[in-house]
Amino acid sequence: MATQQDRNLLAVIGDEDSVTGLLLAGIGNVGQDQKKNFLVVDSKTQIPVIEQAFEEFTTRKDIAILLINQHIAEKIRPMVDKYQAAFPALLEIPSKDHPYDPSKDSILKRVQKLFGE
């Protein structure tokens, strides 16, 4: 059984610039089973590939936080909205070409609902 202490990685699903920046910051990891903790999404990336990475990262026991570019989260919005687990925490982040839009952030919507806003 995994504990919170076992969750020591960040994962990212993002465009090339976002993933490259985060990898340069040191979040990259390739496990002994050759599983990576990141997915670079471009215009050719099929939605099932994004969904598979999201499913894998949200079920892995070594990931504490999953970062996903908001414009990519929009492509799999039903999965993102359905995700409710505390770990890994899911955070939607902006990208260089797509600014953050609070009205699309499912986590922010839940918090606002909780506080009656």
Automatic annotation (TrEMBL):
Known Pfam families for this protein?
Answer: ATP-synt_F
Chief localization: membrane
Location(s) in or outside the cell = Vacuole membrane
Name the membrane topology term. Answer: Peripheral membrane protein
MF (Gene Ontology): proton-transporting ATPase activity, rotational mechanism
In which domain of life is the source organism classified?
Answer: Eukaryota
Does the keyword section mention Signal? no
GO CC terms: fungal-type vacuole membrane; proton-transporting V-type ATPase, V1 domain
Read off the InterPro entries from this record.
Answer: ATPase_V1-cplx_f_g_su, ATPase_V1-cplx_fsu_euk, ATPase_V1_fsu_sf
Which controlled-vocabulary keywords does the entry list? Answer: Hydrogen ion transport, Ion transport, Membrane, Transport, Vacuole
Assembly description = V-ATPase is a heteromultimeric enzyme composed of a peripheral catalytic V1 complex (components A to H) attached to an integral membrane V0 proton pore complex (components: a, c, c', c'', d, e, f and VOA1).
Sum up the protein's function in the record's words: Subunit of the V1 complex of vacuolar(H+)-ATPase (V-ATPase), a multisubunit enzyme composed of a peripheral complex (V1) that hydrolyzes ATP and a membrane integral complex (V0) that translocates protons. V-ATPase is responsible for acidifying and maintaining the pH of intracellular compartments.
Regarding protein family, the annotation reads: Belongs to the V-ATPase F subunit family.
Q: What is this protein called?
A: V-type proton ATPase subunit F
Q: Which species is listed as the source?
A: Lentinus tigrinus ALCF2SS1-6
